[in-house]
């Protein structure tokens, strides 16, 4: 008798805008926090560059955010340990509302991954750029489809 396949959906590759990390630390019940939980569970693979990691570190240290050192260290370590570091050689020439978002956009294009952001208006309209709630709806739909397909096998 053939072995049942793993019921987990395939791993999803993502780039997280900094606001997703901040949001996940501010509210542990929202979609952003759930995304990081699933990174920890090896469901999502975060892609990052050294510049993105530096941006994460810089923003998470803002005094006004009042993020405890241990949480900041945990989230950065999570990204580094579970993620894939990939550098972008040539930046895109797309016009950006906020130039600081270019590094996320360019990595998402080069690595062919989903970009998750709370600032969708800062990016070109593309189906691979989603806010956290829409991304979780997308994930839940493919997760249910994969589960149903595996039950048939």
Secondary structure category: alpha/beta
Put simply, the count of helices is 6
Task: Report the CATH architecture.
Answer: 3-Layer(aba) Sandwich
Order of helices and strands: EHHEHHEHEEH
Largest sheet: 5 strands, parallel
Radius of gyration: 16 Å
Mean pLDDT: 90
Q: Give the overall shape, derived from the CA principal axes.
A: globular
- Helical amount among residues, as a percent range? 40-55%
Plain-language structure description:
The structure is a single chain. The chain is globular. The longest helix has 21 residues, at 132-152. It has 153 residues and is an alpha/beta fold. It has a 5-stranded parallel beta sheet with strand order 3-2-1-4-5, with helices on both faces. The model is unreliable at 1-8 (pLDDT under 50). The protein has a single domain (12-152), classed as 3-Layer(aba) Sandwich (Rossmann fold), CATH 3.40.50. Helix 1 (18-26) crosses helix 2 (31-40). The protein has 6 helices and 5 strands, in the order E-H-H-E-H-H-E-H-E-E-H. Helix content is 49%, strand content 11%.
